[in-house]
């Protein structure tokens, strides 16, 4: 018996990777998948792990490692799989050499995402097998199983998790690392060069492999039938299995560890043993539609939602028709999301608002520039899109139309996909202004390093991409770097750059306030000097409040000493009281 420890789902996946003998992992951060790579660092002696600039690159790195003969993986959130869709569909044809598993974390309930897409749909479209664990122990053990199956059937696998699994803890039994010998590399043009003649043959081959796998799924231990009371039979997988066991402890359950392809014979056998079949799956009716297409009567999305997370109570209500008169848990007061006190993004948005600018926004902490009191951002769609959308507006309406517009993008997002959009602006003779809000980190997902921070995932020093130099290398003449808290200079710079009939890039290089742990100055407001003009309140800093008489108070437990309020006060009512030591 190995040691038993409590682990987060993400931690257990990292442990599973270690135990499975994985040698290479590449990832781009994305909640709720980010911590897998961070936990992997503890195994750096045996596993190489890295941050890639985006998910497409991460998947390609993992495919390269697999072809060379080692077990490899890539991690991402669900929308990251869209970025990696191009290699995904083709590696499906190619298959693997060393086992290849892509961890993809879905986010039912949209805790931290821009949509609620279901990775199983993408996997089915790309004909990629999917394994889904229900708790931390399975996260580790099924992950190892995924590598064995990947090699046995020559298929890349997707390991699907959700926020609830990634961020819940459970008991895990540790095992030794399997020492997996590297598979020999063989030059196989037909398998690894996806040009039409080869791909046609591979398509036939993978259809065959998937059928074999679907047959094998009927007897795989990770697909488990639990026959109890046969009045109700539930087909489920992943985290919803836990809700089923809590709400319907007497019911019979078919718990699927592999959700693509489905084990048809096993499902038919299960259905024959029970009276009423329910299919309980969060998000899309992926299992349900297939099962019903086989002529099986089952109840699914007629009574369950396709939105958000499920719960045991929701199942009690829907299946048992229980009128649950539950005491409402105490509600915390609503707190709309806001930028942290001292966040450099606030200063940038304050100036943009003052200039009555519109911004094509992007994904990151700075998306909060869309909400009051800043309300500068008009659009946010997906990573990298701000720059290309601004370009589209200009091409639609002409250069004068975008004179009061900028694109706003973070440093990590710029390197992820923004850089391609900027190339497009230069190439296609755009005149827009792009603001790169460079806070020297991937802030939104919890401070991951990236290609311009000068540190690797293992915190080793490395070459730091020079973002300004990169923009200049594209031929952009107007590349200006500004301290974001120098609001007078920033205002002047924005006015000058948007007036130009050429592409401009303004880089506001000021580190994320949470990165800099040094002691900062503190500011206080002098009530006697305060004229209640409200200027200092405009940027919406959470450290600033009004006294009952309308004068200003600064909460010294929240103030981070950025000085934005002081620079806005014309009456000397805000003063630095404690300089950094
Ligand atoms: C395709 C994709 N991958 C990952 C994410 C998760 N994610 C959201 S914002 C972001 C990057 C934020 O960093 P940055 O652009 O530097 O802005 P900051 O949050 O630091 O202001 C990431 C990785 C996502 N939403 N979409």
3D architecture notes:
The chain has about 575 residues and is an alpha/beta fold. Helices cover about 35% and strands about 20% of the residues. It contains 20 helices and 23 strands. Strand 10, helix 11 (about 240-245) and strand 11 form a beta-alpha-beta unit. The mean pLDDT is about 95. The site of thiamine diphosphate has 22 residues, from helix 4 and helix 17.
- Using the CA coordinates, give the radius of gyration: 27 Å
**What small-molecule ligands were found?**
thiamine diphosphate
What is the 3D form?
globular
Separate helix tally: 20
> Kindly, what is the distance between the CA atoms of the first and last residues, rounded to a whole number of angstroms?
53 Å
Q: Mean pLDDT score, rounded?
A: 96
Strand order within the widest beta sheet: 3-2-4-5-7-6-12
* Poorly predicted runs of 5 or more residues: none
Helix content: 25-40%
Number of strands: 23
Strand proportion? 15-25%
> Helix/strand-derived class?
alpha/beta
Characterize the biggest β-sheet. Answer: 7 strands, mixed
Protein name: Indolepyruvate oxidoreductase subunit IorA
Catalytic activity: indole-3-pyruvate + 2 oxidized [2Fe-2S]-[ferredoxin] + CoA = (indol-3-yl)acetyl-CoA + 2 reduced [2Fe-2S]-[ferredoxin] + CO2 + H(+)
Function: Catalyzes the ferredoxin-dependent oxidative decarboxylation of arylpyruvates.
Domain 4Fe-4S ferredoxin-type: 520-549, 550-579
């Amino acid at each position: 018996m190995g040691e038993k420890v409590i682990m987060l789902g993400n931690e257990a996946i990292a442990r599973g990777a270690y135990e499975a003998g994985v040698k290479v992992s590449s990832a781009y951060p994305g909640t709720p998948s980010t911590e897998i790579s961070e936990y992997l660092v503890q195994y750096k002696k045996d596993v190489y792990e890295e941050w890639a600039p985006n998910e497409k690159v991460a998947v390609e790195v993992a495919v390269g490692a697999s072809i060379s003969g080692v077990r490899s993986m890539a991690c991402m959130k669900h929308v990251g799989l869209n970025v990696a869709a191009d290699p995904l569909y083709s590696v499906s044809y190619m298959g693997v050499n060393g086992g290849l598993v892509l961890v993809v974390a879905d986010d039912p309930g949209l805790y931290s995402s821009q949509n609620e897409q279901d990775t199983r749909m993408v996997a089915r479209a790309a004909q990629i097998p999917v394994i889904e664990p229900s708790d931390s122990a399975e996260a580790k053990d099924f992950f190892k199983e995924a590598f064995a199956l990947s090699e046995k059937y020559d298929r890349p696998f997707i390991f699907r998790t959700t926020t609830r699994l990634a961020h819940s803890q459970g008991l895990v039994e540790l095992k030794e690392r399997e020492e997996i010998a590297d598979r020999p590399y063989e030059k196989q043009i037909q398998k690894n060069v996806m040009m039409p003649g080869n791909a046609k043959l591979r398509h036939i081959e993978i259809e065959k492999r998937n059928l074999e796998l679907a047959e094998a799924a009927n007897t795989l231990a990770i697909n488990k039938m639990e026959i109890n009371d046969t009045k109700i039979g539930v087909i489920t997988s992943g985290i919803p299995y836990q809700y089923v066991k809590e709400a319907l402890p007497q019911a019979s359950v078919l718990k699927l560890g592999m959700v693509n392809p489905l084990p048809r014979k096993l499902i038919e056998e299960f259905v024959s043993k029970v009276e009423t079949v329910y299919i309980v799956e969060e998000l899309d009716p992926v299992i349900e539609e297939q099962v019903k297409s086989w002529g099986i009567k089952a109840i699914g999305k007629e009574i369950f939602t396709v939105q958000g997370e499920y719960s045991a109570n929701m199942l009690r209500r829907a299946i048992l028709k229980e009128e649950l008169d539950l005491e409402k848990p105490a509600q915390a007061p609503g707190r709309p999301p806001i930028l942290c006190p001292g966040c450099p993004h606030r200063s940038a948005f304050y100036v943009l608002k003052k200039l009555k600018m519109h911004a094509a926004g992007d994904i990151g902490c700075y998306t909060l520039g869309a909400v009051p009191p800043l309300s500068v951002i008009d659009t946010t769609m997906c990573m990298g899109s701000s720059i290309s959308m601004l370009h589209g507006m200009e091409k639609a309406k002409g250069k004068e139309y975008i004179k009061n517009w900028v694109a706003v993008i973070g440093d990590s997002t710029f390197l992820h996909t923004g850089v391609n959009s900027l190339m497009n602006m230069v190439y296609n003779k755009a005149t827009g202004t792009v603001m790169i809000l460079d806070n020297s980190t991937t802030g939104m997902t919890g401070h991951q390093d990236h290609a311009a921070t000068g540190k690797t995932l293992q915190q080793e020093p490395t070459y730091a991409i020079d973002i300004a130099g990169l923009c200049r290398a594209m031929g952009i003449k107007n590349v200006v770097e500004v301290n974001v808290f120098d609001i007078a200079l920033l205002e002047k710079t924005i006015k000058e750059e948007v007036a130009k009939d050429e592409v401009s890039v303004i880089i506001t290089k000021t580190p994320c306030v949470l990165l800099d742990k040094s002691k900062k100055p503190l500011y206080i407001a002098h009530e006697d000097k305060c004229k209640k003009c409200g200027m200092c309140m405009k940027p919406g800093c959470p450290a600033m409040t009004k006294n009952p008489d309308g004068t200003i108070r600064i909460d010294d437990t929240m103030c981070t000493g950025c000085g934005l309020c002081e620079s806005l006060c014309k009456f000397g009512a805000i003063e630095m009281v404690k300089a950094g030591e």
